[in-house]
Amino acid sequence: MCRVLQMNLRPIEAVIEDMQKKTQELAKATSENPPNLKLLQMVLQGSVGPTVNQGPLEVAQVFLSEIPDDPKLYRHHNKLRICFKNFLKRCEDALIINKGLISSEREEYQNELERNYEALKYNLQPFLNRRIPQLYITPSQ
Predict the structure, then answer these.
(1) CB-based burial of residue 71 (10 Å sphere; 0-12 exposed, 13-18 middle, 19+ buried)?
(2) Least C-beta-crowded within 10 Å: which of 3, 90, 101, 119?
(3) Residue 96 — pLDDT band, cuts 50, 70, 90?
């Protein structure tokens, strides 16, 4: 017998889970020893590739463009910002590892991945730098 646990998540909670999953895939690909170049490139391309990186950017535009009206969502909003920061860091780590593993004939591919990453990072910055002021008020204020 198998027991299934079903949870109803708010859309932002589902997005947080999705970003955490993508970040975990990158972490796994970057921690392989010896590195699995094929897996690393597949996960990296799926994270920063031009056909895919609209996904994270669209998610940020939808969920991080406005500070939530509901204070109950402040923590989720902040957690999603942190998920994106972790995702970008893992992408950067993967790019560094990939660069050390590729042959010279794959340099243009590496350059393209790096350009896509920089564009994604640049476009996400306005959303990642926006903070909810209420989360940073100290009790003495």
Answers:
(1) exposed
(2) 3
(3) very high
Q: What is the C-alpha to C-alpha distance for residues 10 and 60, in angstroms, rounded to an integer?
A: 16
SS3 readout for 5-74: CCCCCCHHHHHHHHHHHHHHHHHHHHHCCCCCHHHHHHHHHHHHCCCCCHHHHHHHHHHHCCCCCCHHHH
Indicate whether 115 pLDDT > 90: yes
AA letter at 24: Q
Q: Cα separation of 128 and 60, whole Å? A: 8
108: phi then psi, degrees, rounded to nearest 5? -65, -40
**Spatial distance between the Cα atoms of 115 and 17, rounded to a whole number of angstroms:** 27
With a pLDDT cut of 90, the percent of the chain lying above it is 63
